[in-house]
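The instructor's notes for this session suggest beginning with a concrete chain rather than abstract definitions. Hand out the sequence below and ask the class to guess, before any prediction is shown, which regions might be ordered.
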Amino acid sequence: MKNLFVLTLVTILIAVPPLWGEETQQQETQNSVRQSSTDINIAQQQAEADAQKARAEALRKEAEILEQQGTLQAVIDDLEQKKKTQDAINNELKKRYEANEQEIAKIQKRAEEIKTEADELAGSAKGIAQDLGVALSQSLVSAETPGRKEIVAPLVVQMQFPSLENIQKMGDLIFDEINRNGKVSVSSLTYVDSSGKATSGEVVRIGNFNALWRKNGNVGYLEYAPSKEAFSQFYVKMPARYINEAKKFIENKSPGLFIDPSSGGAFRFIADMPDWWEELKSGGALMWPICIIGIIAGLLALERFLILLWESRKTESLSAAVTPVIQQGRWDEALNLCARSKAILAKVLSTGITHRTEPIEVIESVLDETIQGSLKPLDRNMSALQIIAVIAPLLGLLGTVTGMIATFQMITIYGSGDPRLMSGGISEALVTTEYGLMIAIPVILVHGYFQGRNNNIINTLEEKSMMLVNAVKKRVGNPS
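After discussion, reveal the predicted structure:
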């Protein structure tokens, strides 16, 4: 390397022209050539020595490399074998990894399914707990056992899956509620009386429908206040028959009583219904003539019923007694039987027997005339009932018209915004029609019934008259 550097330097010096004079340059060049020749020889010798030394070093290194090559090949072979072993292990681990990934995916999928099912179960349990809490807050049983709904409160508010203990408590509450709702229980409880004071007394709970209180011989209905989980006396005035039936039930004198499945709603509706006097007043002025003709119709119907009942019984009694006597021609005995009876049939038969010696045509004419003259007591007041049956619905219709007129007048003046302003006219329209029909329909039925009784009596009169005529025909020429 050193010799090569010297040769290069000499070449550069020769090639580059000197900056000073040509002569000086030539002289220097000659001196340089001589010096360079000497240096080149020295450098060449040194380079040869270095080359030999480098070749020796290279041979030594080559020998060392060849010596270590066998060792390296053995190491390489060993490493390749280890690599193959490691590759096999890696392949096995990769397969196990892929299998584990698939198993993990399955487990995650199942975990999601389980979580979904758990969420559904938790939601169902929470919904059931909410419904149960509402049911318990409205149940009459809670008045006997306050605080029951607090047991299901953790199931309603908790965000995690409900514990088995809470679910077990909820199930016990459900079965307890079902069991106690199907029984009649008697217990001593504190309730709020009509004056607003808390009092203690015997409380009879009928399932989950109603509750009764009994104290000092008095009985009444109770209503349940869910917010306080306690009973209070029913504030509306119950009909007397409801209270009497409840008293009989508590005293075991009656197997049943009036209950309200709507927890007092039906009882309030019944208590708010107007009584007969208020209903009459709501019908307006036309209710009075309707009621008057209704009373008259009732009196006439009662009179007709008693008269026709009395006449029917007398007629049947006389007919059964006098029929065999007339058929045997015992006229005097028949006249005595007729004289003792006050039935219309007695007058008809006595008249016919009196004229038995006359021609048959005369007897028949006399009997027909007597029957026609005797029908007046039977037909009395029948036409009056017919008139009432016609007038009553007409008065009701008139009340309907006047009520609707009043309603439309209210609408004209005040508008239709407040239905209460129209209730008076509508009540008048409906109540008058109701009472008119309530009078007319029974009067028509009663009139038909009385007409049938009249026809039966008339048929009996005609039948016995024909029997008398036939008996006279058989005994013509043999009077007795």
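Then share the key points. Strands lie at 184-192, 198-206, 210-215, 218-225, 230-233. The longest strand covers residues 184-192.
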